[in-house]
Amino acid sequence: MKALVCSSLTDDFADIRVEDVDLPEPGFGEVRIRIRATSLNFPDILLCQGKYQLKLEPPFTPGMDIAGEIDAIGEGVEDFVVGEAVVGGMRFGGFAEFAVVSTEGLHKKPSHLSFAEAAAYQVAYLTAYVALVRRANLQAGETLLVHGASGGVGMAAVDIGKLLGATVIATGGSDAKLQRVLAYGADHVINTENGFREQVKALTGGLGADVIYDPVGGDIFDESTRCINFDGRLLIIGFTSGRIASVPTNIPLIKGFSVMGVRAGEYGRQFPEKGAENLEIIWDWVRERKTRPHVHAELPLAQSVEGFRMLQQREVIGKLVICPDR
């Protein structure tokens, strides 16, 4: 079968290419999936650069969110059948024609979603759910400030924030992208090119945002500490800006806010029952059409590295998906 293989860790993805690899066989409690779509997530980039918290020795195949059809079933599997359309998450291995996964955490694909839409859902929405519900306890009527709002995890946060009844302020560096986010449901948008502190203060009657969702880090994090409400929650999702920020402890002390780290996958591993509940809730939401993933584009497996660069250069609105059979 064909798979995208990272042969060495480099910043420019120079040693990532499609190769022929052995077809995997499912073991006990596992199924083999013929992959129709795998979404690209920023951790895939970091993994191939050796900058992610999960460290893998090359060669390996990245790819986390997959959707496809069951091709073969291992012993002990009772709830799934060959040919069934399913979706699931994995830590790596998704950019391939086939993958073997455990049935734990595997879900039947909602019929109204395409394979690309289904693959674009779980990582982004699980991240946003754990951040906004489990960590920040976002309440209806509160103000949510979402940075990097046109990205995959950003749009998921906008979507869930509105579902939970918050007023959503979305930020980004492109007016065109922000107009897409506004149409997606955000109440207000702010271009951060010239800062955002004063605009957030103006939109919140001088109080600041109750919850700030930050996948960007760097200067965005620094300025966020200046426009957060008392008893606010500042969520660290990631560092797409490239700079890991720090905050003098007197600032959260005086302003009375909390800084919270978010690792959605690790949250589920630390609290398995809550982790399973998180997945059930977000998949119920999409089945009930309360949430909707946004797919920017679908690329063939051979153009995966081009997709990596598109995401790295912030050319993607929502999620970019790799489809092996295109």
Radius of gyration: 20 Å
CATH class of the largest domain: Alpha Beta
Tell me how many strands there are.
15
Distance between the termini: 15 Å
Total discrete domains: 2
Low-confidence stretches: none
Helix percent reads 25-40%
The residue-averaged pLDDT reads: 95
| Oligomeric assembly | single chain
CATH topology of the largest domain: Quinone Oxidoreductase, Chain A, domain 1
Our estimate of the beta-strand percent is 25-35%
Question: What do these coordinates show?
Answer:
By secondary structure, this protein is of the alpha/beta class. The protein has 2 domains: 2-121 and 293-323, Quinone Oxidoreductase, Chain A, domain 1 (Alpha-Beta Complex), CATH 3.90.180.10; 124-266, 3-Layer(aba) Sandwich (Rossmann fold). 31% of the residues lie in helices and 26% in strands. It has helices at 42-49, 115-119, 122-135, 152-163, 175-184, 197-203, 218-224, 250-255, 264-270, 272-287, 304-312; strands at residues 2-6, 16-20, 30-40, 65-73, 85-89, 98-102, 107-108, 143-146, 167-172, 188-191, 209-214, 228-236, 258-261, 295-300, 319-323. Helix 3 packs across helix 4 (152-163) and helix 9 (264-270) packs across helix 10. The model has no long low-confidence stretch (mean pLDDT 95).
